[in-house]
Design a protein that fits this description.
Length: 368
Amino acid sequence: MNSGGLYIISRLSFEDGNIDARLSLDGSHWLFSSHFPGQPILPGAMLAEIVSDLCSRCLKRQFVAESVEDARFKRPVVPLEGNLLSARISVAEEKKAVRAKASFTVEAGAEKSVAATLSVSLAENKFPVCFLVPFYNNSKTVAKVIESIQGAGFKVVAVNDGSTDDESLDQALKANPYDLVSYERNKGKGYALRQGFKRALSLGFKYAMVFDADGQHTISGAEAVIDKSLSLGEKQRAKTIVVGSRNKRGADGGGKFANNFSNFWLTVQTGRKVGDTQSGMRLYPLEKICKTKFLGNRYEFETEVLVRMVWRGFRLLEVPVDVVYPEDRVTHFRKGADFTRISLMNTFLTCGALLYGYPRMFFHRIFR
């Protein structure tokens, strides 16, 4: 377990309102190269962020630090190899906030010394979003993708979809995502996304920003998608999927044809128009999606989830985003097999629209 690449959590327990944790700091993290270069020290404010992170994990809700009181710093926290930082936190839940009293101790071999004590007031995050990065044999790009997201201040839940090259998993672990889901056999992007959705929801996130591991997506594009979601009211946001519509479409004609094909059938199945149904950059609200059972496990899932959530009363919004196609990009879309899967899914959804989808949308419109 880890947070944003800054530290790795080797122990975490929560019992009777008390958190006991042990962490090791990553001395190569960019924060230390900018905070007193040559003499790296963990900024005191980061201790409040660590308290927020540990409380979020243990209480299964995402928190932000609102204020710090009674902070006493007794010695600097230096990210030396072999040094560990232990935290003991007592948590008291109040009506609209959580009060956490923390004590941090530096462990250097057999020696232990208290580094700081502080009291932190935490408020529940009103927009708890993480980035979800599924990957399969993306050893050349996955670490750079995760690090770029963390550098922008977001938390990453990564999903190893049964990579067969050990280097892909090693690179992902090197980048230290907030959390990692991993299983041995490749099961497809749709399956990987659903596993990531479930894990993110269990960690207290209510929204997941899907970001491909091949390097084609940009942080600015993802932030535009997030801003669009934030412009909505809370109730609207919880039932809206925001799609990043690519300014540059598929790198080849086959990709463009598959996209236009899916665009057409989504309109037939839902009455809605979306210009880029095959875009992987999407912001999903998690609660209702995690309660829905889906059939598709591979790329056809990205069609299925849009159609079936519209049937359940969801809105679809689009935001124009740029994409890039790096030379070392690896794509796993198989024109023959995956296009066939998408075609079969569209056949099923078209039949389902007549028997189920359109009647349900009709009743949603009447009773909403």
